[in-house]
UniProtKB/TrEMBL annotation:
Keywords: Signal. InterPro entries: DUF1996 (IPR018535). This is DUF1996 domain-containing protein. It holds the Pfam family DUF1996. It comes from Cephalotrichum gorgonifer. The lineage of its organism: Eukaryota, Fungi, Dikarya, Ascomycota, Pezizomycotina. The keyword Signal applies.
């Protein structure tokens, strides 16, 4: 899939793609925790939507895959955590806020029905139609690895791969944009976060949580990233998240011609340039490497990874470490006014 337009992904999944992993993860929790961008902070500056393993906490070091005992992801050996900021609706009449619910990304592939909220995760080797392993081997991340993409303080486009689509319904995802949709979306707001594909091969993290990675992607969609530079020579899986935010239940409150009333949990404006995501590796043993070594296999690594029923995944939980309400009608978003970090 070289770019995504209306209905483009559905066509790709049914007819073209043959390489990489694609699987759903149900929601694990909504909390102000951020062990990648603000480790040790309890709470962190803003609310995140978090999926994955139950080792999630304010501080996460070492081999997460060995500590977690369950995961909300379909791949039962994936105890990684994936998280983004949370979308809120701001009532234009009284200024109150309500958290927007994420819903499973469609289409769900075979055996993945039953996800609750959450997001869809991709690990691609080259692009979604081939893997090119003979020329470009992929190295899985090591235990303790983490990275972030995007910047909550951004006021203009940061790089390709951080995008929105105003879903029209009936499989039509709408045009890719870098800004938050400025009109009601009949099918909700679709967000995508693509992570850099090049690693320095040494550091599990960096001071800014980005410098150990290098982004060579210059176009939208699931395209092959250009060659990695000498400073970051290791090609790792191209990780991406997709989330559908069910904004439809608030569309009747969006007055015609009024500004977009949807805001992220870290910002007061609705431009959307600050969209960002965090990743903390937690695959057990060599399970991810086994999948990345499989040629021309899509979705489940040709049986190299054990899948679990989403009904089992949905039972995985963590405690409310922060102890604050993030849902319902609120007078302010939790952490509003704090310095955004990730």
């Amino acid at each position: 899939m070289k770019s995504v337009s209306a209905g483009g992904l559905a066509l790709g999944l049914t007819a073209l793609v043959q390489a990489g992993l694609r699987f759903p993860c149900s929601t694990l929790t909504f909390q102000r925790l951020d062990p990648a961008g603000q480790p040790d902070a309890l709470p962190s500056s803003h609310v995140h939507h978090i999926v994955g393993g139950n080792a999630f906490n304010a501080t996460m070091t070492g081999d997460v895959g060995e500590r977690a005992t369950c995961t909300t992801c379909q791949m039962s050996e994936d105890f990684s955590n994936y998280w983004t900021a949370t979308l809120y609706f701001k009532d234009p009449n009284n200024g109150s806020y309500h958290r927007v619910t994420p819903v499973p990304v469609q289409p769900l592939l075979g055996g993945s029905q039953g996800a609750v909220g959450g997001l869809t995760v991709y690990y691609s080797q080259f692009d979604l139609s081939r893997d090119n392993l003979a020329q470009q081997p992929i190295k899985a991340f090591p235990p303790g690895f983490r990275m972030i993409v995007g910047d909550p303080g951004a006021t203009s486009k940061e790089h390709a791969g951080l995008s929105y689509q105003c879903m029209q319904g009936g499989g039509n995802r709408g045009r890719i944009t870098n800004e938050m949709p400025q009109q009601p979306c009949p099918g909700g707001i679709f967000t995508t976060h693509h992570f850099p594909p090049c690693w320095d091969g040494k550091n599990l993290d960096s001071v800014d949580h980005k410098s150990h990675m290098f982004n060579t992607v210059t176009s939208e969609g699931f395209t092959n990233a250009p060659a990695c530079p000498a400073s970051h020579p290791v090609r790792v899986p191209q990780v991406a998240f997709e989330t559908v935010w069910d904004t439809t239940k608030f569309n009747h409150l969006w007055t015609s011609g009024a500004p977009n009333p949807f805001v992220w949990s870290f910002e007061g404006a609705a431009s959307g340039y600050g969209t960002h995501a965090d990743y903390l590796f937690g695959w057990k043993g060599d399970s991810l490497q086994r999948a990345m070594d499989k040629s021309e296999c899509f979705y489940d690594g040709c049986g190299s990874i054990t899948k679990q029923a989403m009904s089992v995944a949905n039972q995985c939980t963590v405690e409310n470490f922060v102890g604050e309400e993030t849902d319902g009608w609120l007078t302010e978003i939790p952490g509003w006014g704090s310095m955004p970090m990730s």
